[in-house]
Amino acid sequence: MRAPVGGAIGAALAAFAALAMLVALAVALPISSACAAPPTPAAPVPPAAQAASAPASGYRELTWIQLVPPGWDPMKRFRDVGIGRLSDNSPRTAALMADLRDELDNAPLVETLQDTPVRLPGYVVPLQTDRDGVREFLLVPYFGACIHMPPPPANQIILVKLAQPSKQLRSMDTVWASGVMRLDRQPSDMGVSGYRLDAASVEPYRNKPR
After folding, report:
1. Which of 109, 105, 93, 148 is CA-nearest to residue 125?
2. Which has the closest alpha carbon to 149: 4, 22, 13?
3. Pick from 67, 44, 59: which is nearest to 159 by CA?
4. What angle do CA 189, 47, 70 make, to 5 degrees?
5. What is the C-alpha to C-alpha distance for residues 118 and 127, in angstroms, rounded to an integer?
6. Are the C-beta atoms of residues 200 and 166 closer than 8 Å to each other?
7. Most buried residue, 29, 31, 94, 188, by CB count within 10 Å?
8. How far is CA 136 from CA 42, 173, 193, 200, in A?
9. What does the pLDDT profile of the chain (210 residues) look like in tens digits?
């Protein structure tokens, strides 16, 4: 009888599962315009691949799938290690957990996005806030990432540096973020981001054309 996957290893696998869900559902499911948790938070909902909101002039509108290099398979090296037979207190599990996290944090980036003015929707994870408001935040593709769930791969986290601080932003707000994309892997308390948006502006996400 196989031991159940434990909490730590299960949490890491949830991050991989979230990426797989993003790949499978990004074309079909719209981002929620509400900031409250969805009815089933265990099944995160990614932004739509083709959102209805009109693109801002001069910006290339991206989907989250376009931040992942074609053919990247984060589970390739872990398929034959017998994860389901490991327990949380096993040294083998600790080593595997570190390998899983390393794979996520070093996820490959799409080099052609360097210096590209882009616009994409996502959820807000505040990083730097002062009396003037939020100055930096992580943009993530599904509800709860980096807060209620392990951080997704680095190629699914964007560090957003606002041109002007915002007093309106709250954790897990849904927004459009626009700015110049850079390839810049940066650690933070909430996860490792692979991309950065400079001089960015944000606006509330809308499901319908303006």
Report:
1. 148
2. 13
3. 67
4. 80
5. 21
6. no
7. 31
8. 27, 14, 12, 10
9. 344 445 555 555 555 555 555 544 443 334 443 333 333 233 333 443 333 343 456 899 999 999 999 988 887 777 776 666 666 677 777 777 788 888 889 999 999 999 999 999 999 999 989 999 999 999 999 998 888 778 999 999 999 999 999 999 999 999 999 999 999 999 999 999 999 999 889 999 986 444
* Cα–Cα separations (whole angstroms), residue 177 to 52, 102, 132, 146, 159: 15, 27, 19, 18, 11
d(Cα 63, Cα 122) in Å, to the nearest integer?
Answer: 10
CA dist., res. 204 & res. 188, Å (int): 25
33 DSSP assignment? S
d(CA 2, CA 46): 33
Quote the pLDDT of residue 97.
77
| Cα 24 from Cα 145, distance rounded (Å) | 17
Nearest to 32 by CA among 171, 205, 151, 157: 205
Nearest residue to 140 (alpha-carbon basis) of 162, 122, 160: 122
Q: Positive or negative, the Cα torsion across 33, 34, 38, 42?
A: positive
Cα separation, 183 vs 111, in Å, equals: 7
- The closest of 116, 114, 83, 74 to 194, measured between CA atoms, is 114
Return the residue matching tokens 């993530």. 140
